[in-house]
Write a structure and sequence with these properties.
The structure is a homohexamer of 62-residue chains.
Chain A (H helix, E strand, L loop, with lengths): L2 E7 L3 H19 L7 E7 L4 E3 L2 E2 H4 L2
Parallel strand pairs in A: 1-2
Antiparallel strand pairs in A: 3-4
């Protein structure tokens, strides 16, 4: 029962559905673990909650 | 200072209080680590943010 | 498909089996989600990898 | 590419910016890994979603 | 800087390299975030540290 | 009870002690939460278990 966790910025429903579908398919193909064993958790984070190189993403994207 | 993290769908306040109380009690009893050392983090996720077997939970529950 | 993650010190096989069994049972009872939907991940950490109040657990336990 | 994840109560923008800046600087100084390799993820949790010693933080802070 | 975390059983080097390559490529394609922004963390767990439906994976696989 | 989790490559005991001490001190100073409420979890990962830009860190560092 592998768990794939995605920490990512705010993402559209279409992209979330595609991520769940495609990452599960790829990971199942590579590991030979059946797709129905995979759990995907999508943790959407605001740009004020992601830091890169010591700066908030919201500052970087300004 | 063990940390118990719950990734779970949206959950009522009553159930969250019960989860924190009961999981801490059980884990403390089994590990013999005092209850007051336990931290519980409840990560509530929308059904659009949980994938099972390559499908969003929001599609599965339709 | 809720996921319970335990970050904890090194733990015996017996205690890990009991934690998985009992935490799943309690969480299932409270949330009314069937037991077979629960995944538990046990992340065992050495005392040199846990810090409390600014000190490593290995220093505190000396 | 170290990842620093903070699970913390609701926090002001100023404090989040300071946390990202200062934790990255300190961690880079200690590990000698350049600052721009660090990712910080801030997971803000409501007091109803944090448990300490078997009680919700929202009950403790009442 | 999205972070993909995989909690999975013990996995060969070849499969880990393939997972990192393919999951990054797919996630980049879907989100339009450049591949070099992605971090993948692979958390390998022994079968004694994974529980499904209240049982350790090591018991289930016996 | 904030939790700081570090996902990082293999790190010496001295550096881990310094990380726990300094990150706790900084985070406490910024958030005004007492140091003794902080838990730090250090998740050391082999270079075969970290991916950046679709490549394992072990390949990048060759």
């Amino acid at each position: 029962m592998p768990v794939i966790t995605l920490d990512i910025g705010i993402t559209s429903l279409e992209k979330k559905a595609a991520l769940v579908k495609e990452l599960t398919a790829k990971a199942s193909e590579i590991t030979q673990i059946p797709e129905d064993k995979f759990v995907v958790l999508i943790n959407e984070l605001e740009r004020d909650n992601i830091g890169i190189g010591g700066k908030l993403l919201s500052e970087i994207m300004k």
